[in-house]
Design brief:
Elements: H1 2-15, H2 21-30, E1 34-38, H3 41-53, E2 63-67, H4 74-81, E3 89-95, H5 99-109, E4 116-119, H6 123-131, H7 133-142, H8 146-153, H9 163-171, H10 177-188, H11 196-204
Parallel strand pairs: 1-2, 1-3, 3-4
């Protein structure tokens, strides 16, 4: 795992304008054949949690799961890791509103779109709907966040909003919370309730 983290760090440095030599060397040494491109760290936590539940070691399988730090970076990452760069197979998740960025970025890189799966709003929304709001609120309570959740609900902006939208917004209100719950919500899912985009991604790689 430490080596795969080194690969992620090297790719991040490369995407930020550094040299790609280290990323290329690590890709060869680790046998990376597929790069799973995700918008953020919460998506990464969810993908890794589901892989673990299914008894898979993605790093050992040559699958590098990477956070791009935002959907707008898809063109950059696809160019570095796809056909123009390291020549890795690309897969990932995207939010429906970000599809145009992914479409343009992947086309520029000459990478196929078939292994990218679309979430209706985002992955957190998919997970909340899969679990149901009552179950998610139970998890929030069990994690010691009940008081913060109750305070959040008293905000005027939340009055009258559907519960699943309130929960989705709550998960993103504190740094690190969305990442932590990305894993927790996946761990709480019944196997048959895994959202289709997440299931299809893990099936494809």
């Amino acid at each position: 795992m430490a080596d795969m983290q080194a690969f992620r760090d090297a790719v991040g440095g490369w995407a930020g304008g550094g040299s790609g030599a280290e990323a290329g060397e690590l890709a060869v040494r680790l046998g990376v054949r597929t790069a799973v491109l995700l918008e953020g760290l919460s998506d990464l936590a969810a993908v890794e949690a589901l892989a673990e539940r299914r008894g898979r070691d993605l790093a050992a399988e040559g699958v590098g799961v990477l956070s791009m730090g935002g959907a707008m970076n898809i063109g950059r990452y696809a160019g570095l890791l796809g056909p123009p760069g390291l020549g890795l197979r690309l897969a990932g998740l995207c939010d429906v509103r970000e599809e145009p960025f992914y479409d343009r970025g992947l086309k520029r890189a000459g990478a196929p779109y078939r292994d990218f799966f679309v979430c209706v709003a985002d992955l957190e929304d998919e997970l909340v709907r899969a679990l149901g709001t009552a179950r998610v609120e139970e998890i929030v309570r069990d994690e010691g966040d009940l008081r913060a959740w109750q305070t959040f609900l008293r905000q005027p902006a939340q009055h009258g909003r559907p519960r699943h939208q309130q929960l989705r917004r709550f998960l993103g209100t504190k740094k690190g919370r969305k990442i932590r719950y990305g894993r927790l919500l996946v761990e709480a899912l019944e196997p048959e309730r895994v959202p289709a985009p997440l299931n299809d991604l893990l099936t494809s790689v």
